[in-house]
Design goal:
The protein is mainly α. Helix content is 52%, strand content 9%.
Length: 131
């Protein structure tokens, strides 16, 4: 998280976006499942930073979070916004062909600030985009 996510969260906040980030929201003794469920249920988008650590074998919580996002998306429409961090397309395909099929941002060619600006654009009303 330290090599990208923390900086990305700060950039999102600079863009004026409200961010649910587990590091800021989970306190000692909290139920991870309950807090993550609440965070997913209240979020318009779920940014998934796919990294070698995220896709590692036996990562229960990352798989559970992604499953939850797919469920929310099945009702609400586009929700999952993937970012590839230090991964190749082959690695993402091996992890999940479904998520590999999504247009993703990548830290290989974009900064945290640039990706945050792209996310901010999703909140601009379509009528404003046409002007």
């Amino acid at each position: 998280k330290e090599d990208f996510v923390d900086e990305f969260v700060e950039e999102l906040k600079k863009q004026g976006l409200k961010v649910w980030y587990d590091t800021n929201k989970l306190k000692w003794g909290d139920s991870m499942r309950e807090k993550i469920d609440k965070g997913l249920a209240k979020s318009r988008y779920g940014v998934v930073v796919l990294s070698p650590n995220y896709i590692a074998e036996h990562k229960y919580w990352t798989k559970a979070e992604l499953d939850g996002l797919f469920q929310v998306e099945s009702i609400n429409g586009k929700t999952i916004l993937p970012i590839w961090h230090n991964l190749t397309k082959k690695q993402v395909v091996e992890y999940s062909p479904i998520i590999a099929n999504r247009k993703a941002m990548t830290t290989a060619s974009m900064t945290a600030e640039e990706i945050a600006a792209e996310l901010k654009e999703l909140f601009v009303p379509e009528s404003a985009e046409e002007n």
